């Protein structure tokens, strides 16, 4: 299996530029920006589309604009147009009308490409209809190319993203575009040479921080063409495999590739949004000749570190722009240009620092609960379950049972586990399971209730939500 591929400086990519100067960068007009079923969108077309929309947004009295797009090209147009128009950019993680209605207090107007949103009672702009035709754009709009002194003040562009965490309630995360730009520079320093001029395809949404960076903004800054629409199914991921293509994906997709047959390798595979099973990492290598680069971080923190999982104990490596420390509980503290380069940020991630900027994740303190006055790590219970040959995946939560807090587990079984349960029956299977867990866990830390499912549900960010898991016990 391959080892880490790490670069210490941004390579001599003449196209790479900061978001602040993206629209005035010296690129050939025919250079491809995005590709879709109807062909390619070129650099000159992208500039014209951003100019057209930016002029319209500048004329609007509305300040806070929510972006909701299926098409990544139109998203990229709207994002940069809003930035250049001096608007606040709001990125809802869920496009459904009812979900948007719940977030209406966060935005004044909506820009989108979804017909089902046109009935919402708010100011709107719909792409591509709102874009001026090429002839009108070229003749009537001032050109970014002519504005050689033009530079976007990144620290003045405000962005709001939403994260659901585990509770499912959207939480607003406030950023400025200079923090995003700093992370793009880090990504190019780390992987720019390997990705070079590869084509970028993705299974993850650009509406969340991971997809925003890896699928749209980093390719834009580096001059890499990206696919306009999602790869939603395993067969699409297999059909898109190519040595000149980079895949941006998640554990949720990678674990669905068990029955696929390898065709071609990818240039690189990235995974983020949740823990990637060792088996899924190995399967990716078998299919694509690439161990996925797992990226660890959050909407709040941006990227923290990365690894290629050669085995479950493979340590993580910090991005080189980040300073780190541990608090008294062993939780990670960060001084990061992706959060605030002047202040330390306290996380709930317990870590073991190994030296040489490597670390191991030990779970989160906010997943430590008290059951009958004993402190129990839900992360550890999940890990112990997954150590058993019968268990493929496990999600552990707490439930109120007759005014008593108990631990419950939603699990998927391996083939061995399914055969064993069928052979001895469910009752004896649960007794045998608890007997195995006694090697590591105190009786109070044992799951009292189990549910076997075909697949543990994930949201669009690849995260497990407590409210979804609780449904299995009602």
- What is the number of beta strands? 24
Sheet with the most strands? Answer: 10 strands, mixed
- What portion of residues belong to β-strands? 25-35%
Question: Distance between termini?
Answer: 44 Å
What does this structure look like?
The chain is of the alpha/beta class and 474 residues long. The protein contains 13 helices and 24 strands. The chain has a 10-stranded mixed sheet, sandwiched between helices.
Give the arrangement of secondary structure elements.
Blueprint: E1 32-36, E2 39-42, H1 43-58, E3 64-68, H2 72-84, E4 88-91, H3 97-102, E5 109-112, E6 123-126, H4 134-140, E7 158-163, E8 171-176, H5 177-195, E9 199-202, H6 209-222, E10 226-227, H7 234-240, E11 245-249, H8 251-254, E12 268-271, H9 278-288, E13 293-298, E14 302-308, E15 316-318, E16 323-326, E17 331-335, E18 345-355, E19 358-364, E20 368-371, E21 374-377, H10 378-387, E22 391-400, E23 405-413, H11 415-424, H12 426-437, E24 449-452, H13 466-470
Parallel strand pairs: 1-10, 3-4, 3-5, 4-7, 5-6, 9-11, 11-12, 12-13, 23-24
Antiparallel strand pairs: 1-2, 7-8, 13-14, 14-15, 15-19, 16-17, 17-18, 18-19, 20-21, 22-23
């Amino acid at each position: 299996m391959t080892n880490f591929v790490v670069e210490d400086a941004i390579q001599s990519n003449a196209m790479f530029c900061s978001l602040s100067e993206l629209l005035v960068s010296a690129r050939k007009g025919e250079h491809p920006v995005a590709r879709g079923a109807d062909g390619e969108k070129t650099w000159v077309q992208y500039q014209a589309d951003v100019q057209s929309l930016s002029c319209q947004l500048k004329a609007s009295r509305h300040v806070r604009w929510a972006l909701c797009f299926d098409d990544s090209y139109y998203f990229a147009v709207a994002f940069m147009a809003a930035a250049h128009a001096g608007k606040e950019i709001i990125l809802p993680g869920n496009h459904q009308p009812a979900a948007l209605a719940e977030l209406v207090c966060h935005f004044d107007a909506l820009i989108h490409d979804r017909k089902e949103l046109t009935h919402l009672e708010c100011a709107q702009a719909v792409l591509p209809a709102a874009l001026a035709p090429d002839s009108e754009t070229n003749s009537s709009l001032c050109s970014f190319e002519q504005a050689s002194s033009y530079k976007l003040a990144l620290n003045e562009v405000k962005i709001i993203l939403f994260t659901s965490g585990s509770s499912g309630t959207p939480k607003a995360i406030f950023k400025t575009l200079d923090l995003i730009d700093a992370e793009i520079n880090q990504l190019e320093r780390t992987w720019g040479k390997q990705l070079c001029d590869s084509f970028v395809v993705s299974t993850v949404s650009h509406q969340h921080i991971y997809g925003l960076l890896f699928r749209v903004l980093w390719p834009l800054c580096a001059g890499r063409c990206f696919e306009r629409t999602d790869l939603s199914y395993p067969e699409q991921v297999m059909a898109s495999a190519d040595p000149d293509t980079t895949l941006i994906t998640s554990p949720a997709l990678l674990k669905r590739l068990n029955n696929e047959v390898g065709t071609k390798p990818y240039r690189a595979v990235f995974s983020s949004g949740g823990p990637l099973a060792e088996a899924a990492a190995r399967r990716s290598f078998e299919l694509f000749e690439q161990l996925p680069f797992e990226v660890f971080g959050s909407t709040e923190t941006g990227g923290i570190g990365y690894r290629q999982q050669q085995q479950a104990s493979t340590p993580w490596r910090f991005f080189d722009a980040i300073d780190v420390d541990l608090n008294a509980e062993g939780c990670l503290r960060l001084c990061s240009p992706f959060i605030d380069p002047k202040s330390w940020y306290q996380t709930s991630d317990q870590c073991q620092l190994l030296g040489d900027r490597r670390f191991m994740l030990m779970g989160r303190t906010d997943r430590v609960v008290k059951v009958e006055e004993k402190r129990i790590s839900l992360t550890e219970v999940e890990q112990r379950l997954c150590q058993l040959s019968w268990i493929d995946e496990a999600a552990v939560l707490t439930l109120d049972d007759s005014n008593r807090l108990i631990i419950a587990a939603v699990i998927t079984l391996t083939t061995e586990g399914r055969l064993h349960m069928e052979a001895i029956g469910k009752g004896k299977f649960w007794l045998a399971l608890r007997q195995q867990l006694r090697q590591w866990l105190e009786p109070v830390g044992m799951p009292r209730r189990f549910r076997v499912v075909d697949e543990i549900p994930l949201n669009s960010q690849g995260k497990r939500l407590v409210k979804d898991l609780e449904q299995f016990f009602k």
